[in-house]
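Exercise 7 asks you to align residues with tokens for two separate proteins.
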Amino acid sequence: MTTAKDIMHTGARWIPEHETLDRAAQLMRELDVGALPVADANERLCGIVTDRDIVVRCVAMGHDPSKVTCGEITQGTPRWIESGADVGAVLEEMQSHQIRRLPVIEDKRLVGMISEADLAQHLSDEELKAFCARVYASS
């Protein structure tokens, strides 16, 4: 059985909820990623901030990214998956919530992220086609 841990990208990093969006953008640039899990003071997942969030929900609204924190911009319940979950559970979580990135948690700690690129490397063409159809379907 292929698990989330088998297909995830390792080396994912949190950003604390008190950090500003300009720092999040710098970290995204350093890590060459478009999203960062946001952690509370206990290093528990409390959201995800994306490069698009920074642009659309901060800069385009006339706010200063050096004054807005990651915790202020995250919204909704963050989705995640246990590292031992099978690929079917990963696909169901991503498809049912129409998300493109999924943090992987082990022993209540971040151990990786699963993105569309990770799925593309591990799914058959038919599985990938079905995934894209469900995630990108209009609501």
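Second protein for Exercise 7:
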Amino acid sequence: MTTWTPEDRTLLSETYSLVLAAGDTGHPGVEIGMVVVDGALYVRAYRGVDSRWYRAAREHGYGTIRVGAVRRDVLLTTGGIEPSEGLDAAFRAKYGPVAEALVASPEARAATIRIDPASVPAS
């Protein structure tokens, strides 16, 4: 598995949200909040596993993310994730009371996606 570069981790940690597009469907993607915990990038679907974009991520397993002008091809892991115990705390720290929809419900926890870079970005 490829890991995020230190520059990417900093960008992702300091940015409020990203745009995730699953597969190569040509859809513009969905803007969502994200956190970096122990060097790994996570997002959650607050509507749970029936969320349309979560289902697309599960079906395709790959896609792209955009953070500002930066675009990365990514792998999307939707099953068998053992998130860090600090994941809920990271969402709370970054998003405050708004994060409760992402951390309090079992539906959102079940719809956790780990996002990994598909390959090492070109220098």
